[in-house]
Amino acid sequence: MIEGQIATPLWGDLISVVLGSLLLVATSCGGDADSIGRGDARPDAAASGSPDAAGPGVDAGAGEVLPDAAPPDAGSPAPDGGPTGPTIESVETSDGFTQVRQGESVELVITGAGLDGVTRVAVGEIAATLSEQAAGEVKASLSVPHATAPGPRDITVSGPAGSYTAPSAIEVTPYVVAPSAPSGGHGTFQSPMSLCSAEVATSQRGDTILLLAGQHLCRFPIDLARGGQVIQGEGEGTTIVGGADGRFGGFRLVRPLPFPARTTFRDLTIDARSRDDGAIRLADGGALSVERVTILSSVISLGECPICRTTTEVTDSTFLDGGIVATGDAQIQIRDSIITGEGIRTNGGRLQVTGTTFDGCSTGVALQSGGDGRVGLRGEITSSTFTDCETGLMLERGDLVIADTTIRGIFPLASDRGVFVTGGDLEARGVTIAGHWRSGIEALLNSDDVLTASTLTLADLTIEGGQYGVRLHGEAIRGGLRMSSSSVRDQTVAAVSLAIAGIDTYDLRGGNQLSVVSGVALDDAIVAPMFITPIEAAGIALNGRPMSDAGLQRGPIDRSPDFRIVDPQRSIQF
User: Fold this and answer.
1) Is the pTM of this model over 0.85?
2) N vs C: which end of the chain shows fewer Cβ within 10 Å?
3) Is 496 a residue whose pLDDT tops 80?
């Protein structure tokens, strides 16, 4: 019993010593008893009276528990007193601007702290190239690609010690052109350039040339290289391009091949006053858009290359004493515009006109016979108005369709015609033609071009006044006239005059009404014994009298003012 009583305290002391040693080992490893079991190696946040015992996140003097230290922010000192991350105080170009335009190369000057360790400078999505470097300043070369979208860009500097971003520190601008810009401008809002500056010609596909409000005076042509730019004004009555004497050399796109891009003109006035080169010249092919543009005393010139294709769209624009002149394969669309003076002349490709007014033109639209005969030619005129044009439309070759359109003459002119055909096929429906001194629709096929063929298909027409309503005369080997559901009235010589030799078809069936003030309503005035083509006119009314019971009428016969036939070999079948 004595031995047992003595042994117990000894074993207790030994156990206490062992446990104390284990706790000491655990504490020196940075954990507690629980942490050993979890494998958690984080320092204990318990207070310690010894400064040496204080770990990260512990205030050794006061024993205050702080949050765990986060990774150093950009520009903040490292917790162990190591290198400081970079910071930015200011960013500008070497000549003191914070804007740079599309396609421009500049030197950026970045000031701040901790910049000596910077290895990369980025302006938004664009990487700059370091050129000089110190702790308080970095210089970098920046080249803005052409077609870069305008807008502010963040500046980011980065290196081993961290990175720093200055938001919206640099702005990319279009080519900014001001009327009173001094020479040497960069072409930004802070430093605009002149329209006559050679830098304008450095613009490329995807760039925007922004013409600020005012009158831009420049007598020289503006070359746009291969095209693809947007030439943007601040309004037709606000941005005016023209020379000091009212002349301007025009915008030229001379060599847009081999991969032409669309060039757009928008919201400005061009006062060129020159018909030689044109306000806009697209010489060798390419694509052009004209939106809300006024062109004074000049034309848009398209395609001097007969094998090149030009594509042009004109919308909500005005040509005062001007128009469009096209050669070769020209694809032209015009919508909701006004054209006076020159009108439209084209000899190849396709012309589509919708909702457009032609006023005071010598010829409103001419589909001409010149150019490469291999290039097809087709014109479509819909929902448009021709007023006071000497000739509303002229068709020399190809196909012309006119629909839902008014062609009206105001002043009597010596050769005043609504539609004049010398070759090609005409289709007209829902058209009103009035007020012309000579003829509403006239087809003249000359004997020196006897192979010319024309087929006129007319429906739902109203033709008022003039000497002739519909007049066909000349010579041709083939062709024809088909007219239905039309009213031709108040002429002084003939409502319909058929004086053309060699035509295949005269078909006037289908409810036509012809009436005259004087002369004859239906006149077959040709003598052509070699070509006997009868006139089919069932259901026609002449001067208000239906001819359904007249039967077959052979010439020569004169039933004026209703009808007459001169040639004894010809006939009218009512």
Assistant:
1) no
2) N
3) yes
